[in-house]
Amino acid sequence: MSFTLAIVGRPNVGKSTLFNRLVGKKLALVDDQPGVTRDLREGEAKLGDLRFTAIDTAGLEDATDDSLEGRMRRLTERAVDMADICLFMIDARAGVTPVDMVFAEILRKRSAHVILAANKGEGSAADAGVIEAYSLGLGEPIRLSAEHGEGLNDLYSQLMPIADEFDKKAEELSDTVEIDVDLDEDAEYDDEGALPSELITEAKPLQIAVVGRPNAGKSTLINKIVGEDRLLTGPEAGITRDAISLRTEWGDTPMRIFDTAGMRKKAKVQDKLEKLSVSDGLRAVKFAEVVVVLLDAAIPFEQQDLRIADLAEREGRAVVVAVNKWDIEDEKQEKLRALKESFTRLLPQLRGAPLITVSAKTGRGLDRLHDAILRAYDTWNRRVSTAHLNRWLAGMLEQHPPPAPQGKRIKLRYMTQAKTRPPGFVVMCSHPDKMPDSYSRYLVNGLREDFDMPGTPIRLTMRGQG
Ligand code: GDP
Ligand code: GDP
Question: Nearest ligand, CA of residue 365?
C-alpha cells in the first residue's frame, strides 16, 4: 500500500504547480462529471522511487466572495481527512499571512503528518519568509521552488520515513485497536443537536463507495439508485471504463457515489487479482465516508470480499454490508442465519455493522440500505461528551479492573473523545505500553454496545501522562 499526500494552502502559493510536477500528465479529476466544481484533483505521483497519490485542493481561485474562508476550510478538511500526509504550502516571498495561520491551526488539529513547505523559495527574496515559516509551529520548513524544481530532494527526505511507516502499517493486517489519534482539544464534546446526516447538503453530499467483487452487482445497484443507465451492466466483467463518481439524490439525500469499476477491468489479470482489486478498492474507499460492501448472495464472503471489508475498516470508514441478488434465494431464513454466522466469524473487526439483504435488480431492500447508510454515517460522526465517557469508564473499571503487570496495577485516569469520522478515543493512563490488547478490546466493545455505535470502526489510544 502506498500513501496519499494532500497539498493544501491558500490560493496562489503554488500548490497546482507542485501537483503538476509530481503527477505529470497522469492526472485524474476527482469530480469528472460535467458541471461539477472540480475542487479536488487527484493523481498518481512520483518522486524518486516513491509512488503515491497526490490530492490538490485547486478550484479555490474562483471563490472571491466572503465564503472563501468557509469553503477553504471545508475543502482543506476534506483533503486532510482523505490524506495520510499533508503538505502545507506557504509563499515564502509573501511570508506568513493570517490565512496561513488559519490553515496551520486546522492542520495541527486534524492531520497526523504535516510537512511544511515554503514555496517560491528561489532567490534571496524568499529568505525572510522561510525563517518566518518556523513560527507556524509545524517544524522545519522545506524551501521549495515548485516552478524551478528546487528543494524536491528535501521533500523526498521528509516523505521517505513516513512512507516506510505506512508500508509497515499496511503489513500488520490485523490489529486495528491501537491507532494513533490526535487530541483535538478544542472540539466540542456534545452529543446533542441535529444528526450529521440531517446536515448533508447539495454542496456537501454524502460520499459513498460501492465495493465488492466483480459481478456482485455494483453497477446494477448504482444504476438503480441513480435511476438511469449511466453505467453499463452486463454479465461479463470489465465493461465500465474507469473509476468514476456520480452525483445523485437518493431518497432526498444528496450523494456522491464512487464506483470501483477499475476493479473489474483488472480482474482479468488472474494471478494478480487480489492485490490489484484491493489497491483499486482503496481508491474509492479513500474518498468515501460510508462504504457499502456488496456481496453476492450465491457466493458471499469470498476472500476478496473479506479483504475489501477489512480495508474499509482499516481506513476508518463506516461500513454497511449489503447482500445482493436476494431475489434468487429460496431458503431466505436459513440463508440469512448462515450469513450472519459467517459475518461474525469472518469479519470480527466489523462487529455490529448492519447486514442488509437487497436485490439491485428489483430494487427490494434499497430503502433499508439507504437508511442503514445514513445511520452508519451518523454513528461515524458520533461524539460522546467527556463527562459521559468518564462516568462510563468508572463503571467499566469497576466491573473489570485493568491488569497489574508485575504487581503494579495500570491506572486509567481519564478518557476523552479526540476525533470523529471515525470515533477516536484517548485514555490517559500509567504504563500505556503494558496495557494488553485484550483490555483495549474490552473497552472498545463496551463503547460500541453502551453508546450504540455499530457499523463504525472505533479507535482507542492509550496515552501516558508526561
Ligand atoms: P495554487 O493556487 O496554490 O495552486 O498556485 P499555482 O500553482 O496556480 O501558482 C500560483 C502562481 O505562482 C503561478 O503564477 C505560478 O507560476 C507561481 N509559482 C508557483 N510556484 C512558484 C515558484 O516556485 N516560484 C515562483 N516564483 N512562482 C511560482
Ligand atoms: P458488478 O461487476 O459488480 O458491477 O456487477 P453487475 O452490476 O455488472 O452485475 C453482474 C450480473 O449480476 C449482471 O448479470 C446483473 O444483471 C446481475 N445482477 C445484479 N444484481 C442482481 C440482483 O439483484 N438479482 C439478480 N438476480 N441478478 C443481479
Answer: 2
Three-class HEC string of the chain: CCCEEEEECCCCCCHHHHHHHHHCCCEEECCCCCCCCCCCEEEEEEECCEEEEEEECCCHHHCCCCCHHHHHHHHHHHHHHHCCEEEEEEECCCCCCHHHHHHHHHHHHHCCEEEEEEECCCCHHHHHHHHHHHHHCCCCCEECECCCCECHHHHHHHHHHHHHHHHHHHHCCCCCCCCCCCCCCCCCCCCCCCCHHHHCCCCCCEEEEEECCCCCCHHHHHHHHHCCCCCCCCCCCCCCCCCCEEEEEECCEEEEEEECCHHHHHCCCHHHHHHHHHHHHHHHHHHCCEEEEEEECCCCCCHHHHHHHHHHHHCCCEEEEEEECHHHCCCHHHHHHHHHHHHHHHCHHHCCCCEEECCCCCCCCHHHHHHHHHHHHHHHCCCCCHHHHHHHHHHHHHHCCCCCHHHCCCCEEEEEEEECCCCEEEEEECCHHHCCHHHHHHHHHHHHHHCCCCCCCCEEEEEECC
Q: Which of 224, 230, 233 to mutate to test the pocket of ligand 2 (most atoms within 8 A of CB)?
A: 233
Q: For ligand 2, is residue 359 a contact (CB within 6 Å)?
A: yes
Put simply, whether the predicted model's pTM sits higher than 0.80 gets the answer no
11 CB less than 6 Å from ligand 1? yes
Pocket test for ligand 1, best of 64, 127, 147 (most atoms within 8 A of CB): 147
Task: Return averaged pLDDT per consecutive 10 residues of the chain, 466 residues in all.
Answer: 81 89 64 43 84 75 54 73 86 92 84 89 93 88 94 92 69 33 38 73 85 86 75 41 64 81 39 43 77 93 84 89 93 90 87 91 95 93 86 92 83 86 90 88 91 87 77
pLDDT at 361: 94
Q: Is the CB of 13 under 6 A from ligand 1?
A: yes
Q: Ligand 2 within 6 A of 360 CB?
A: yes
What separation in Å is there between the alpha carbon of 227 and the centre of ligand 2? 15
What pLDDT is stored for residue 166 in this prediction?
Answer: 67
Q: Which ligand is the nearest neighbour of the Cα of 360?
A: 2
Each residue's pLDDT tens digit, 319-343:
999 999 999 988 888 999 999 999 9
Closest ligand, as measured to the CA of 293 = 2
pLDDT tens, position by position, 150-189: 999 999 989 988 877 766 654 442 232 233 333 343 333 3
